[in-house]
Amino acid sequence: MIYLELFLTFFKIGLFTFGGGYAMLPFIQEEVKLHGWLTDAEVINFVAVSESTPGPFAINISTYVGIETGGILGAICATLGATLPSFIVILLVARFYEKFKNSKIVSGCMTGLKPAAIGLIGTAVLTIGKTVFFPTAVSLASVMTFGFVSSLVIFALMFVLTMKRTHPIIIIALSAALGIAAGFIGEAV
To answer: Do 139 and 72 reside in the same domain of the chain?
Structure first.
């Protein structure tokens, strides 16, 4: 039963998500919480892992949720569920693109989907940010912790490096190294 549930859940997520893997994140968070598969903290931890591993984010996270809940077969079902809708839709789009590329309905649909995708990505940013910076609760006390300050410093540094167009591999490696260092320092403090 878990295999069908994983497939159908990720099929639904894949079918109704526009804007890429990050636009999927609010749906994934909601569904895994609803099913009790992962906690918010586990999802956020895997977002970090997914960003530092090869492959598309949506495939990585669906595979992870699948393997955590149903082993190898669960990973296959969740991954297939997440990717199959895109595969079907792109086959249909490719087949009928020439016929509908100048359609006002298609153009209007794309115009409406763009801000929706940005809104979904923004929601993911806020949810992840809250979990990273305020893991227990938003309060003055949480701002005064080593974890908050180190996360804020790493975020600010990575933001500056991103704006300076530093290669993403360098940013990922440096942020991982700084996170490890902050973990050791945090334990000592």
So the answer is: no
| pLDDT tens figures, 67-105 | 999 999 999 999 999 999 988 988 888 888 777 778 888
36 and 95 in a single domain? The answer is yes
Q: Quote the CA–CA distance of 126 and 128 in Å, as a whole number.
A: 6
Q: Are 13 and 84 in contact (CB under 8 A)?
A: no
Of the candidates 64, 77, 59, the one whose C-alpha atom is nearest the C-alpha of residue 9 is 77
In sequence order, the 6+-apart residues with CB closer than 8 A to the CB of 123 are: 25, 26
Q: What long-range pairs does 107-115 form, CB within 8 A, spacing at least 24?
A: 113/18, 113/19, 114/19
10-14, 100-104, 151-155 — which is least confidently predicted? 100-104
